[in-house]
Amino acid sequence: MAMAAPAMRMASSASFLPRLLPPTVFSASRAQVLVRQLSLPLFPNLNIAIPVGISLGLPSLPEVLEGIWEGILKAVPKKKTSHMKKRHRQMAGKAIKDVTALCVCPACGGMKRMHYVCPTCASRLKGFLHQEAKAKEEAQAEEEVKAKTK
């Protein structure tokens, strides 16, 4: 029984720590395991080693995060960005460009885009086609009326 106590002390202070921590974090020179020795009144020859704390010699978490946390707090906006400002930012440099490829329509003399139908001539043609369609409908209606009267 007396042999078990030193082995347990070795196991608790040296062998379990490298298994818990990755090799890059664990360094045997900086790591310390605080162990409390207990002896039970019923078994005076039996000593038990209980790990109380582990010290790795690394800087504490608040010290590490202090610089990072200050940067995060400064980056938080104080107010919501309005829809107008957000759209101005998103649409910057995407404005509608001026049309430079213009020419004179040979039929009516108005301005039109190159390789496109002149809008003035297109509206005149559309009106003319509507007039012809109405004339055909009226002619068909008259023929139907004549056919019914016969």
Automatic annotation (TrEMBL):
Q: What Gene Ontology terms describe where this protein resides (cellular component)?
A: mitochondrial large ribosomal subunit
> Which terms are listed as keywords in the entry?
Mitochondrion, Ribonucleoprotein, Ribosomal protein, Transit peptide
An example GO BP is: translation
Record-linked SUPFAM superfamilies = Zn-binding ribosomal proteins (SSF57829)
Return the NCBIfam families for the record: rpmF_bact
Family (UniProt): Belongs to the bacterial ribosomal protein bL32 family.
Q: What is this protein called?
A: Large ribosomal subunit protein bL32m
Please name the source species. Answer: Podospora anserina (strain S / ATCC MYA-4624 / DSM 980 / FGSC 10383)
